[in-house]
TrEMBL record:
It comes from the Bacteria. Belongs to the DeoC/FbaB aldolase family. DeoC type 2 subfamily. The lineage of its organism: Bacteria, Bacillati, Actinomycetota, Actinomycetes, Sporichthyales. The keyword Amino-acid biosynthesis does not apply. One of its GO terms (molecular function) is deoxyribose-phosphate aldolase activity. It comes from Longivirga aurantiaca. It is an enzyme of class 4 (lyase). It catalyses: 2-deoxy-D-ribose 5-phosphate = D-glyceraldehyde 3-phosphate + acetaldehyde. The keyword Transit peptide does not apply. It holds the Pfam family DeoC. This is Deoxyribose-phosphate aldolase.
Length: 326
């Protein structure tokens, strides 16, 4: 008989620092209910057919815009590109001040200070990717120094990647301790950076692994769990997002704590965004329909949302030059 997550969490050695071990974590994660692959994919497909009516769609478009982490993570990023991105995050449509700001701008560490200065008191957060993003292949001291550099530069949010090799090898304690250590750095010297833990679900192979990694990240102190870096295919998918949202729901039921969720990579159209918002509403409820608890890692999505928004306001589509190309 499958035990509930609440009863599994009560086992000695799962959350107790003094007795936590690989064997205890393996026992806990192995005791989680398995994911019905066919059922998960069928439910995600069924929810994706739901339509959003005109008045609700206008609200949903603005909500989706407010949930976007506008991102540039390229080797050729320049200060000018980041300034332009920050300006767009503050005011996504230069012609329409009623369009909400995006949730955050996400950059590499060396550009955090610039983004912070550009965004000022706009309310748009600055996120930084750390822990040897996107591979996660570095020593613990390097990962912690990487994170500390971003936090000291003023990052409001840290997007870290887990060590997928350690996770897939069953070294769950190593992954747990790494996330917990990064979380500690996020709160050093009075800092209060939120921690988003990237699972890189495209490399985890099974939905069961996605569920286990989600629980492991939440147990270690994640504020958000995130599907992907956007550098590996497949990135975000509806079934994977469903599994992760179910983990968030079950974690709340077991602990009373609410954890955010962020699908990232491959979400590029308004129709895509609507599917994800329906999935959130039907799986975890309206509590999660806020940028504080749900984000899109999808910069290309913003332009399509802006074009659809203008279409609803004017009755006609604008040309592609209406929006900036990031």
């Amino acid at each position: 008989m499958t035990r509930s997550p609440s009863s599994l969490l009560a086992d000695p050695g799962v959350l107790d620092d003094a007795t936590r071990s690989d064997s205890a974590l393996r026992r806990f994660l192995g005791g989680l209910p398995g994911v019905d692959q066919v059922g998960a994919e069928a439910r995600a497909a069924a929810l994706s057919t739901r339509s959003i009516k005109t008045t609700s769609k206008a609200f949903a478009i603005d909500l989706a815009i407010s949930m976007i982490d506008l991102t540039t993570l390229q080797g050729n990023d320049t200060p000018g590109k980041v300034r332009t991105l920050c300006a767009k995050a503050r005011r996504p449509d230069a012609h329409d001040p009623s369009v909400p700001s995006t949730a955050a701008v996400c950059v590499y560490n060396d550009l955090v200070g610039l983004a912070k200065a550009e965004l000022g008191d706009s309310g748009v957060k600055v996120a930084a990717v750390t822990t040897a993003f996107p591979s996660g292949r570095a020593s613990m001291p390097v990962k912690l120094a990487d994170t500390r550099d971003a936090v000291q530069a003023g990052a409001d949010e840290i997007d870290m990647v887990i060590d997928r090799g350690a996770f897939l090898s069953g070294r769950y304690l190593e992954v747990f301790e790494e996330i917990a250590a990064v979380r500690e750095v996020c709160h050093e010297d009075g800092a209060d950076a939120h921690l988003k833990v990237i699972l890189e679900t495209g490399e985890l192979a099974t939905y069961d692994n996605v569920r286990r990694a989600s629980w492991l990240a939440m147990m270690a102190g994640a504020d958000f769990i995130k599907t992907s870096t956007g550098k590996i295919a497949p990135a975000a998918t509806l079934p994977v997002t469903l599994v992760m949202l179910e983990a968030c729901r079950d974690w709340r039921d077991a602990t009373g704590r609410i954890i955010g969720m962020k699908p990232a990579g491959g979400i590029s159209t308004t129709k895509d965004a609507m599917k994800y918002l329906v999935l959130v509403n039907e799986t975890v409820g309206t509590d999660w329909l806020t940028p504080d608890l749900f984000r899109f890692g999808a910069s290309s999505l913003l332009n399509d949302l802006l074009l659809q928004r203008q279409k609803m306001a004017t009755g006609r589509y604008s040309g592609p030059d209406y929006v900036t190309v990031d």
